[in-house]
């Protein structure tokens, strides 16, 4: 196991024992907005994990219960039977797509927060330049570099979130279609 963590291909942040200090250092370099972005990303991923657990654990149980109840019905062609079926499909739709819009909004906020962090960082750079003069290009370049960290973090978070949201939406759609086909009249 130690050979795995001493491999030269692993980034330095993963090889150190104090990765929390490295994370804290990165967050402090990006400014206060980066902490807000981190909170948004954490909330987004908590909702994503909840959706994955729901899709893999809870929904199959509920689907099985609906299918059992449907197959036990003696008549499946009456208006009443179709109303029950449509009610179950509506419940499934609401349960499957719960939190997906919130995830989508949180993903959309990430690049905007990143840009806000960059703007506030640039304001700080210009403030330092105004107070100390603009004779030190190294100071200005390092300040601009640090100001762009929130944009990079926001874009990375948004790209990952967009990919996962699209996969979750497709998985929900497929499960909804499969349930609808399974609840069709068989008699």
UniProtKB/TrEMBL annotation:
The chain crosses the membrane at residues 33-57, 102-126, 146-168. Residues 75-174 form the MotA/TolQ/ExbB proton channel domain. It is found in: Cell membrane; Membrane. Keywords: Cell membrane, Membrane, Protein transport, Transmembrane, Transmembrane helix, Transport. The keyword Transmembrane applies. GO terms for biological process: protein import. It holds the Pfam family MotA_ExbB. One of its GO terms (cellular component) is plasma membrane. InterPro entries: ExbB/TolQ_transport (IPR050790), MotA_ExbB_proton_chnl (IPR002898). It comes from the Bacteria. Its main location: membrane. It is a multi-pass membrane protein. Belongs to the exbB/tolQ family. PANTHER family: PROTEIN TOLQ, TONB2 ENERGY TRANSDUCTION SYSTEM INNER MEMBRANE COMPONENT EXBB. This is MotA/TolQ/ExbB proton channel family protein.
């Amino acid at each position: 196991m130690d050979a795995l963590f001493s491999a030269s291909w692993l980034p330095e942040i993963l090889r150190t024992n104090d990765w929390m200090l490295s994370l804290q250092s990165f967050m402090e370099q990006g400014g206060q907005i980066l902490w807000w972005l981190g909170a948004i990303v954490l909330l987004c991923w908590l909702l994503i994990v909840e959706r994955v657990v729901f899709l893999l654990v809870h929904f199959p149980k509920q689907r099985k219960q609906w299918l059992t109840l449907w197959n036990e019905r003696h008549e499946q062609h009456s208006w009443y039977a179709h109303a029950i079926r449509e009610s179950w499909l509506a419940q499934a739709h609401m349960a499957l797509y719960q939190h997906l819009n919130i995830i989508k909004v949180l993903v959309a906020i990430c690049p905007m927060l990143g840009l806000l962090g960059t703007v506030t960082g640039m304001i700080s750079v210009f403030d330092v330049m105004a107070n100390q003069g603009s004779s030190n290009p190294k100071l200005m370049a390092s300040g601009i570099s640090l100001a762009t960290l929130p944009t990079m973090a926001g874009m990375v978070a948004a790209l990952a979130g967009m990919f996962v949201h699209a996969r979750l939406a497709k998985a929900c759609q497929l499960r909804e279609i499969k349930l609808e086909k399974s609840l069709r009249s068989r008699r």
